[in-house]
Amino acid sequence: MPPGSSPRVSIVYGSPSDQNVMRQAGAMLARFGVSYDEASISAHRAPRALADWIAELEPRGIEVVIAGAGMSAALPGVVAAHTILPVIGVPVRGGAMDGLDALLAITQMPPGVPVACVGLDNAKNAAVLAVQIMAVHDPALRVRLAQFKEDFEKAAVEGLGGAALELGGAAGVGELARGLGRDLHSPGRDHDAGTRS
Fold first, then answer.
1. Distance from C-alpha of 181 to C-alpha of 90, rounded to nearest angstrom
2. How many CB atoms lie within 10 A of CB 71?
3. What is the pLDDT of residues 24-33, one digit of tens each?
4. What is the pLDDT of residues 54-98, one digit of tens each?
5. CB atoms within 10 A of CB 116
6. 150 in any annotated domain
7. 33 Rama class: left (phi>0) / alpha (psi -120 to 50) / beta
């Protein structure tokens, strides 16, 4: 987070074991220059702590919540039930159903308690969606998002496809289309051929 800036996005996950997946959201937000914080709070094991945390979101200036959870994946829905802020759910792989249960749980919220849902373990897309939500009223962020989309498209046209997101970590938003080819075709990696539909 840039020095002196307040977080705009809160990343929360139900278990410390989810951190490896959810840190990808933070890395992507950092690429856009968006400040964030993160916490590990279980909806089942620490419900009062979670309620207290949710109550502080708006007073702290948080604009979007990214909530990751596996198995029953109650966390995103509980957060959404207690705030008017947009909540993006990240279903985390694990358990007997390898994340399918989490995916279904997050997508089956009752009317009036929406949670946006990205793919299994796809915290990067959750971060991009959070940026898109905030960019509606943030012209500077909208410019960075437009550059990201342009660079991402260039990478896809050059046959690099989803690798633009896969290699994201340290690369700046404006560097997505440059230098991606180096590591894309090393043995043991899955590749997106960048086919057009």
1. 28
2. 20
3. 999 999 999 9
4. 999 999 999 999 999 999 999 999 999 999 999 999 999 998 999
5. 21
6. yes
7. left
What are residue 65's phi and psi, to 5 degrees? -115, 135
Co-location of 106 and 130 in the same domain: yes
pLDDT at 176 over 90: no
CB-neighbour burial class of residue 175 (10 A; exposed 0-12, middle 13-18, buried 19+): middle
pLDDT at 183: 34
Q: What domain range includes position 153?
A: 139-184
Structure tokens at 58: 């708006």
Give whole-number Cα distances, 174 to 146, 152, 164, 177, in Å.
10, 10, 11, 8
Q: For the chain, list the strands marked E by DSSP.
A: 9-13, 36-40, 64-70, 87-92, 116-117
Residues 14 and 47 in one domain: yes
Nearest to 66 by CA among 94, 50, 88: 88
**What pLDDT, on the 0 to 100 scale, is given for residue 129?**
98
The alpha carbon of 38 is separated from its chain's Cα centroid by a whole number of angstroms, namely 12
Rounded-to-integer distance, Cα 149 and Cα 114, Å: 26
| DSSP three-state, residue 11 | strand
